[in-house]
Design goal:
The chain has about 475 residues and is of the alpha/beta class. The protein folds into three domains: about 5-160, Rossmann fold (3-Layer(aba) Sandwich); about 175-245, no CATH class; about 255-474, Rossmann fold, CATH 3.40.50. The protein has 14 helices and 18 strands. The protein has helices spanning about 25-30, 45-55, 60-75, 120-135, 150-155, 185-190, 265-275, 295-305, 335-340, 345-355, 370-375, 405-410, 440-445, 465-474, and strands at about 20, 40-45, 85-90, 100-105, 140-145, 160, 180, 195-200, 205-210, 220-225, 230-240, 240-245, 280-285, 315-320, 375, 390-395, 420-425, 455.
Length: about 475
C-alpha cells in the first residue's frame, strides 16, 4: 500500500460533508452529475477516467455523454494548481455546488478478497472506496453507481453504496400526474355558489370558486360519474381560488367519430379531446399495451392531415430497442430500415382502413397507399438539426428515451407542429433508465399545467378479453 496519503486531502474538509465516489456509468448517464452533490465532495478514481476515455468514440448518447464529462473535467482541472487540495466545483458557475472535486493522484492499493479479479475496473474502484473508507473513518464515504451488481458487491464488503437519484423526477411513479381528477360528490354544493356559466362554440363554460380550485391544473380533466348524468369537463383556466371548466366533445357518440373510431371509455374520450384540439401543441399519453394510445393518435392524425388539412403530414418515430436478440443490420432506405420497428403502425392502419364508418369525404376513398404516402417513418438518429413545420409528430415507445433525448426531439417542433409522446413506463428497455428517470416521466411532470399541453393516463385495455386477462394474471 502507498505510504503517502494521496487521498488524505478530502479528510481535511469538514467531516459533516460526505465524500461521494462516482462510478463511470453515472457520468455517462448524466455528465452534469459532477455538480449535483451540493456541499459534498466528489472523488473520481483513475479507472473512471480510463473508462471515460474508452467510451468516448462514436455517435451514441453514451459516447456524447462521456465526451461532455471529459470536457467538464478538463475545464475544472485547468483552473487548479494543486490537484491534491481538490478543485472547487463552483468554478463552472454552479453556485449550488459548493463541494470540491478530487482526482486519484497516485496508486492506491487495498486488499480485497482473493476471489475478486484483479485488474477489473469495478474491483479497482471498490478498492479505492475501501481505502478512503478506512482512511477517513469519521466521514461518510459513499459509492454512487447505476450498476446494481456493483452496489451489491460494495455492500457485501461493508461499504456504503447508492444509486444516482438526482435524475429522478419522482421517487414513486404512483405520484405521477394522471391528467384527470374525480370531483367529490359535494363538489357543486361547495363550489357552485356565485357560479357563472355560458356557452361558446358548442361548449358550456362554468366559472367556479372554492378550495379545490387551487389543486386544479390547466387542461386537467375533471369528471363525476353518476348514473343519472355524468359530468366530464376540462379546466380551461385556473387562478388561485377560482377556475373555469369547459365541457367536452363527446367522442363516444358515432356522430363525432374520428376516422371511423369512437372512444370506448372515459379516458379515450379525454385523449381525443386533446388530440383534436388545435390549441394543444404537446400531448403525452401513458398506458399499458392495448389501451388504444396508437390507434387514437393515428386516427386523430389522419383526420387532421387528410380531412381538416391542419397538418401537412404525419411523422412517426420510436426508439429502436429490441426486446430479444438484435437481428443485425437491415438493408434499404431509412424508412425501410425502420419498418420492422413499425409493426404497431401497420396493425393500427389495418383497423383504420377496415372502418365502415364514413370518417369524412376521404374516409371511404382512402387506400392504404394513399394514407401511407402521408405518413413518414423517421429514425431518431437523424433528428438533430431538423425543424418540423406543420407536422403531426408521433413519438412512440417514448419511455425508452432519456430526458436529454426527449428535449432534443421536442425542440425540433416548428410553428404549427403538434407533438404526441406515448408509452408505457412499466416497459422500459433502456439500460439505467427507471420509471422515475425516464424522459416520458420527465416531460409529463414538467409540462403539466401549461396551457398548450395535455396529458392522460389510460387505465382500461380495449384489445380483447384474452389480452385484458393476461395483463391481469401474468
Amino acid at each position: 500500500m502507498s505510504t503517502r496519503k494521496a487521498a488524505a486531502t478530502p479528510s481535511r474538509r469538514n467531516t459533516d460533508t460526505k465524500l461521494f465516489v462516482l462510478d463511470t456509468n453515472v457520468l455517462m448517464h448524466d455528465p452534469t452529475s459532477l455538480f449535483r452533490f451540493e456541499e459534498h465532495d466528489v472523488y473520481l478514481p483513475i479507472f473512471v477516467l480510463e473508462e471515460l476515455d474508452n467510451n468516448k468514440k462514436g455517435m451514441t448518447e453514451v459516447a456524447r455523454n462521456a465526451r461532455q464529462a471529459s470536457r467538464f473535467l478538463d475545464s475544472l482541472v485547468s483552473t487548479s494548481d494543486n490537484m491534491e487540495e481538490g478543485v472547487s466545483l463552483e468554478a463552472q458557475g454552479n453556485k449550488s455546488s459548493t463541494g470540491r472535486l478530487f482526482l486519484q493522484t497516485e496508486l492506491i492499493s487495498h486488499e480485497l478478497p482473493e476471489n475478486m479479479a484483479h485488474g477489473k475496473a469495478d474491483n479497482a474502484i471498490l478498492g479505492v472506496v475501501a481505502y478512503l473508507h478506512r482512511q477517513q473513518p469519521k466521514r461518510p464515504v459513499i459509492l454512487v453507481s447505476k450498476d446494481i451488481n456493483m452496489r451489491i458487491k460494495a455492500r457485501a464488503l461493508g461499504l456504503e453504496a447508492q444509486d444516482y437519484f438526482n435524475d429522478k423526477v419522482l421517487e414513486d411513479s404512483d405520484l405521477l400526474y394522471t391528467g384527470m381528477k374525480e370531483l367529490p360528490a359535494d363538489f357543486w354544493d361547495t363550489h357552485g355558489k356565485d357560479m357563472q356559466s355560458g356557452s361558446q362554440a358548442g361548449h358550456n363554460y362554468y366559472q367556479i370558486k372554492g378550495p379545490l380550485c387551487r389543486d386544479l391544473l390547466v387542461n386537467e380533466f375533471v369528471f363525476q360519474d353518476n348514473a343519472e348524468k355524468p359530468f366530464y369537463a376540462v379546466v380551461a383556466a385556473q387562478d388561485g381560488n377560482s377556475a373555469t371548466l369547459r365541457t367536452l366533445t363527446d367522442y363516444t357518440h358515432s356522430k363525432n367519430a374520428i376516422w371511423g373510431i369512437t372512444a370506448r371509455n372515459r379516458e379515450q374520450n379525454f385523449v381525443l379531446n386533446l388530440l383534436m384540439n388545435p390549441e394543444i401543441d404537446f400531448v403525452t399519453l401513458l398506458g399499458q399495451a392495448g389501451t388504444g394510445k396508437t390507434l387514437l393518435t393515428l386516427a386523430a392524425g389522419l383526420m387532421q392531415v387528410l380531412e381538416h388539412k391542419i397538418y401537412s403530414e404525419i411523422i412517426m418515430t420510436r426508439v429502436t430497442v429490441p426486446v430479444g436478440e438484435d437481428i443485425g443490420f437491415l438493408p434499404g432506405t431509412e424508412e425501410e430500415k425502420m419498418s420492422p420497428w413499425m409493426g404497431a403502425l401497420d396493425d393500427n392502419l389495418d383497423v383504420l382502413n377496415k372502418s365502415d364508418e364514413e370518417g369524412g369525404e376521404w374516409g371511404r376513398a382512402a387506400t392504404r397507399d394513399l394514407i401511407r404516402s402521408r405518413i413518414k417513418i423517421k429514425s431518431l438518429n437523424f433528428m438533430r438539426g431538423r425543424t418540423f413545420l406543420n407536422k403531426y409528430l408521433i413519438i412512440d415507445e417514448a419511455q425508452n428515451l432519456t430526458p436529454k433525448q426527449m428535449k432534443t426531439l421536442i425542440t425540433r417542433a416548428g410553428p404549427g407542429t403538434k407533438v404526441v409522446c406515448m408509452g408505457n413506463i412499466a416497459q422500459i428497455d433502456t439500460p439505467y433508465l427507471t420509471e422515475g428517470s425516464s424522459g416520458l416521466t420527465y416531460v409529463v411532470d414538467r409540462f403539466k399545467g401549461w396551457e398548450h399541453s395535455g396529458h392522460v393516463t389510460l387505465q382500461r385495455g380495449e384489445r380483447s378479453r384474452l389480452a385484458d386477462h393476461a395483463a391481469e394474471v401474468l
